[in-house]
Amino acid sequence: MPDMSASERAAGERVAGESRPDRPLVEIRDLRVSFEGVPALRGIDFAVSPGEAVGLVGESGCGKSITWLAALGLLGPTARVSGSVRLQGEELLGAPPARLDAVRGGRIAMIFQDPATALNPVHRLGWQVEEALRLHRGLEGAAARAEALRLFERVGIPDAARRLASYPHEMSGGQNQRVMIAMALAGAPDLLIADEPTTALDATIQAQILDLLREIQAEAGMAMVLISHDLGVVADLCTRVGVMYAGRLVEMAPAAELFAEPQHPYTCGLLGALPDMSGPRRRLVAIPGSVPEPGRLPAGCAFAPRCGFATAACAAGVPELEAVGEDHHAACARLPLPDAAAA
Amino acid sequence: MSATQIDGATQIDSAGQIDGAGINGAGIEGAVVVAARQRRRGMPVAVICALVWLAAMLAVALAADSLRPYSITAIDLRARLQPPVGFGGSLRHLLGTDELGRDVLSRLIESVRVSVLIAFGATAIAATFGTTMGFIAAHFRGLVEQAVLVLIDFQASMPFLIVALAVLAFFGNSLPLLVALMGLYGWERYARIARGLAIAANAQGYAAAVRQIGARPLRIYLGHVLPNIASTLIVSATLSFPEIVLLESGLSFLGLGVQPPMTSLGNMVGFGREYITRAPWILLAPSVTIVLTTLCVSLLGDWLRDRLDPTLS
Amino acid sequence: MFRYLSFRLLRAVLTILLVVTFAFVVLRLSGDPALTILSPDAPPAAIAAFRHEWGLDQPIWVQYLDYFAAILHGNLGQSLRDGRPALQVVAERIPATLVLTLPALTMKVLLGIPAGIYAALHRNSMADRAVMAGAVAGFTVPSFVLGLVLVLVFAVQLGWLPSGGQDSWQATILPVVTLGLGGAGILARFTRSAMLEVLGQPYIRTASAKGVPWRAVVTSHALPNAAIPTVTVMGFMVGSLIAGAVVVESVFSWPGVGRLLVVAVANRDLAVVQVILLLVAATMVTANLAVDLVYGMLDPRMRAAGAR
Amino acid sequence: MTKLLELDGVSRTYSSRSGLFGAPIPVRAVDGVSLSVAPGRTLGIVGESGCGKSTTGRLALGLERPDAGSVRFAGAPMPAPGTAAWRRQRARMQLVFQDPLGALDRRLPIARQIAEPLVVHGIGNRAEREARVAALLADVGLPAELGRRHPHELSGGQRQRAVLARALATNPSLLVCDEPISALDVSIQAQVVNMLADLQAERGIALIFISHDLKVVRQVSHEVAVMYLGRVVEQGDPDEIFAEPAHPYSRALVSAVPSVGPRRIERIVLKGDPPNPADRPSGCAFHPRCPLATAQCRAESPALRPLVDGRLVACHLAATRRLVA
Questions:
Q1: C-beta separation of C21 from C28 below 8 A
Q2: CB contact (8 A) between residue A167 and residue C207
Q3: Which end of chain A offers a freer environment for a tag, N or C, measured as fewer CB atoms within 10 Å?
């Protein structure tokens, strides 16, 4: 791992050093979601170990957000969800509402893309954080106020004491995202799901938030799932990365390995399509065609029509995730690719 | 009201450099549901019934002269207050007769024509006037826009029935005045919609794109903006059409709308009220017609809104 | 907040100004008052004298200012019918109207808002459909039809309640129910859509995601936000307390402001019509100001919009 | 090389007011910006939201008039917006928007929209226009039958191709692309970037490429300008600027780019938010967030001055820092 900051390295070593526990923190098995008969998620197997930072990347509509919304029962009544989501062995799908409420924000916290609309406009920021403290830590009144202040300071909100009494519209996007993070930390969760936490933010603010997430994850020792369409963001923060396409996981590997030696043609394509920040400029390798619509998926491998390696066999059946290396899995019928490195 | 304050402040880099905010996240679920909906094209039974009723009303309005069994003023004093068929009446007068022996069915047919024509005329006037005002506000901005907004505010904050009654008190009553008055009803909704959507299209959308191609304002507003917002305007019209019917029938009921010898639905209810105990059919026939018609247009409007324009509340 | 309120106050004054101007313009457009009042074949000298006496020979803007001054002095003209001050004639009728509209407003709120919330929370259920059907009926059935049907059933057929008059409290039941049912339908429909809109917002998902139980999500996250648009509709309903019963008062021969207006319009009693118009405008404007105040309390963004 | 478009010290101030009676607050969206672009070259403009890069693009196109400074296109001053001369000039310069779906009229088939500039400017007869539309569709790599479809029947990438085809219809010599790919999926962005490069090579169009995505700007630009709060803070060769930024803001911006590959510049995380354009700090607008700010920076606004290697930097410390580096 040539390029990691100190804190990243620390996080990596900690996960490695603690020897991967036998039982994952969260284990998702064959999770499927459909909306009014249209499949959005077509069978996801995924596990998160305690303390690790996992990235989930993919393009719009690939199901990366829906996976976790479904896992926490946050999809509307139009969604049909099947499969299994276990939190340290406890099944969450179909769990009673009271149990889910205790898990949400308590064991598993979530932050969202657009902090401006994700915070309630009519309540003070302090109140919104204190609500989580009351629900999950039983703190009331002055104790809750003091803890909220501590959290605000922890996530780097300047003038925190005064900001507790502010409303979301009085804050910038970056500050609101810090409040979201403070709110997520309020329940001292074991897992933080960050759903495109920096997509709506400017570049320099994005850097601030990513730094904060990295720090907090290392400090609190919690696991994190970072959902993003930006490979760079995920590469920065995560030790393990999953790539999704059209409602399925197509590749899953340690971050460094995934970016250095991608196996699935789609991952190769995504990396080839990214311009470099340094070195000579080269013509970008674009993936032809476009992402299929959820209701109109091709038969067999959904990526086959855009894939340079596809054969007739690819349309015959949906490939399953298979091990292609230590802790490295890919779902492609043509593996190993004839000339993967070239792509 | 608050809209003015908000768009005054957000002119800088309205390009919205928010990095692909729409691509990911919560939008997905919606997109999938929409995709699912688009595949099921069908019309609920209630909407079909509504359409049939409305088509019948329209046919009655257009062909009133040939459908009417009697003249609306044909008085038959020997056949006064005859009940409808099925309640002891004869086939000569299907819906019975009124206090002067006039055929209720004939008067109902004529009333439908008058009421429907007034409602259509008024809706057309309101839509045209309101949309024009909205476009003017969106195009000129600044003081012109503020003036239009004050007018919109005024119109929306005064109960229209009171204003209409005041105008009728001052000017007396005539059919053209009544139609023009009804035509002022609800113009502010079209103006709001037209202004809002035109500003959005101008800010960063198809209208801005066509403008920078070099098209003239008339081409932009009539050729592009109007067709694009037409569905929203039509939905809005179907929602305000029944209100105009109600307003006209209310005025006529009070004796201040359509004047005798002309007749309209509200007018019939108003005069029939005197005989509510002895001959309720005089008032029930037009009442049922009003309720069914407004109900059907509302059903159609709601359905159209769900189909065409879920953003309109 | 102060800036915001003074801005709203200015708008309110502007609205009143518009109403007065409207009344003036309409009055002048509607024909020469000299001819209307004196009859067209009065001697020219009498007409000239009348014009001079009432200032009708002055330039139009002087007339406009005079008109304004008269209104500011509370001089709103005499009723044609009995020559009494129009203001007094109207004021006498206000209590009778409030006896109908206040209980009706209570009924609208108590019936409409809970029904709307319930329907939104149980979207697409049978209860939702029933509420929506009731709501649609509430505004597609004109109040005079509803009123007459109620009379037909409860007064004529069953004989339980009086069909008109105001001799007993029972006489208020039918008009109040007629007013209340229609308004409750509109309010239910509006509350439902406001609630559905709010329930679809990302912050509702955030609240669920942080483990807030559904009941608390509804009461402390959704309701305060849904209240904001609902207040507008309520403001309109409060604003029409004085003249909101024009049709219903006519149906039940109720001697309120609405009935007075209808009679005044029929008799072209312009002074009375004018007073009612101004009164309605003033109530509406006051109600709207109250709405703005409530907005400021409910929505922190509004406070900021004014403070900026 | 002769310049096609020259912006000379242009400023644009909006007056933002709250409501009808609120006190107007002047907001300097663009403040004394001088830029130019030559035929066949690409000028990239980068910066965060509110930095004035979109307004600069609109000023360059003459869609808005500067309050100060001048814009010259092919040597002539820009006519006033809305005039006949201005409308005629639209044929020579075009804008590509961020959101292709919004920029297309969803009620008209693609082919008619591509033909619209020709109709507006009275170019060709019906048959000639049809032929031209077919050629344009082919140029942007869209199959001819797509011309009959409506915008919503196309994918995001196809729509942006259609918008490009329309922009190219009148053979413009200048194209301003305002965030042309940020609404597209990652796998589609590369398609559009490649196509833009090809079209420029074939037709010698001058491009102004406005984006917050530094990687893409580096990929397409011959020259790049970094903007902060309405001003250009650094301007020059993209390879040099992105490899060794001289202005502390550019440096932070470059270092903040999330990257899969190795990082060349140590990450600098700036404190605070970009300030509100309505409330501009004194002196150098960047000083409250700048890790190197001195007393001079707080008091004095730095001018854009050339460094030894030819690039322009607006920083009091840039010259000395270069020596140190």
A1: no
A2: no
A3: N
